[in-house]
Amino acid sequence: MASSRLAPLPSLEAPRLFGTDGIRGIPGEFPLDRDSVVRIVAATAAVLLRSRPRAANGGPPRALIVRDGRGTGSALAAAVARGLARAGIRAVDLGILPTPSLSRLVPRLGGVLGVSISASHNPARYNGLKFFAADGFKMSQEAETRAEKEFFLPARQAAPAREAPRLERSESGLRLYRDFLRSSFPAHLDLRGLRLVVDCANGASSTLAPDLLRSLGAEVAAFSAHPDGTNINLGCGSVHPERMARAAKSARAFAGLSFDGDADRVLIADETGKLWDGDFLIAFAARELLERRLLRRDKVVVTTMSNYALLRHLEALGITTVQVPVGDRNVSDALERENLSLGGESSGHLVFWDWAKTGDGMLTALQTLAFARARGRPLSSLRPAYVPVPQVILNVPAPRKPPLDALRRFQTALKRHEAALKGTGRIVARYSGTEPLLRLMVEGPGARRVRTIARALGAVYLNETSEEADWDEL
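Structure (tokenized):
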């Protein structure tokens, strides 16, 4: 990985390195050039070590590293090891494993932190870093802020990157994580006689998911399960679930599963090819847990992007909701704060709090299949009975991301459209935390109307910020 210039020292306030879910970018460019990665990891490790300064056995502390199979992962792992060594931490490479495996493995193996090298659902040219603390939780926003401040210290900026220490490799992580997932499936159930179609996004679930499902007795037809370093999420996975849904219907499968690149999310299709997004999975799981008296406080955590019809459906079941900003860390924080058992996002991140502290696509798939298997009925007959309010999510190019509150014309247009939708829909405008995009979510009566509103707001934003866009892609 080529080294580039030092990060610019800020004059007033350091720019944000961390987004909604870790750090993402183009490897070789700031902040994912080699020297910056070394300093970011060293700064982050220094912050996290303050809460756990020594390994339990008295030896040097160690950190666990997993990857999702991108071609740039090995070079980034070497840079991560340099940064860990600078903080006095031994690096253990667990190989290609889903990001959520760290939530289980870091505390299980006595690590002081975990680093997932992944850009999740993004194309192969991107990569990123996701950090887990010693307790298995994703690094808090407060810790991220402290790490950013440490990264921009002059002493940290001036320190050169050292040669990488040898990465210690271990295959124990795959076995332990697989055993954990298997234990989450009820012992009195199996998947014998069920045909499943599985899209692994050419990512971290490519070996694990088909093997685990077959071990439970399922007949598995897997595709996009041959990562070559460049094909992750390429026309497949949870961002392109259409092929999986068609295959599930064609094969007369019980269900189809689509994971993203690092397998922290999943979308499911039933035997008719009808897609279940994260909202439907939340509704299904909430109903099942409620009937089993396992839904604590009869309450579920959702994000601002969940469909308005989901909220009404849960309310009709006697389930209240807590709405939080986008990001499965925000979901997890709310679950811990309110002592709840289930939360998730429409994108397919679900958190089953009694089993894991972060979104886990494999765990979500297993819990969903277990609920359905216990019912002994086709999956389509179990689909939550609500019709989503027409919704469009428009991605608008936003390389500079000026504060939305400072855009006078955009705010005027936003308030006008919100007033017109009052009582029948809503608008959510937010910047993506992982890509240079403004995400406009519009819900309301009529697909054509919400699409028109979204495009109108996108046009105002682009005009006011002087950005250009190919409207055929919006």
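DSSP finds 14 helices and 18 strands in the chain. Residues 44 and 351 are 25 Å apart (CA to CA).
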